[in-house]
Structure to design on (99 residues):
């Protein structure tokens, strides 16, 4: 940061304009076209998801083999969730204080 307290940020107006054009273009698409885009995105991401799941399974096997050596059956028998098993739950509201 310069000593005078001013910041010199890069000009990103072209990036923001391109994002806005993309949003408008996607807004004009039909629901079916949007679903087709999502399907293509899932297909594109499939190798990445598969690689991640393979890494999780491999890590679980390493942990279970180490636990088998140490005799820790509780950890060795633990189920490692697949990425598709994890469902994000909405946050629970905080209890209201009505005093």
């Amino acid at each position: 940061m310069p000593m005078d307290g001013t910041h010199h940020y890069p000009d990103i107006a072209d990036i923001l304009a391109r994002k806005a054009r993309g949003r408008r273009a996607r807004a004009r698409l039909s629901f079916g076209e949007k679903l087709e885009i999502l399907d293509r995105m899932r297909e594109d991401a499939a190798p990445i998801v598969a690689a991640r799941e393979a890494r999780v399974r491999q890590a679980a096997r390493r942990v279970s083999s180490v636990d088998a050596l140490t005799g820790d059956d509780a950890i060795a028998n633990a189920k490692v969730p697949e990425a598709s098993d994890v469902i994000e739950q909405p946050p629970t509201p905080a209890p209201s204080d009505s005093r």
User: Anything to note?
Assistant: The chain has one domain: 13-83. Helices lie at 13-28, 31-70, 73-76. Residues 64 and 77 are 7 Å apart (CA to CA).
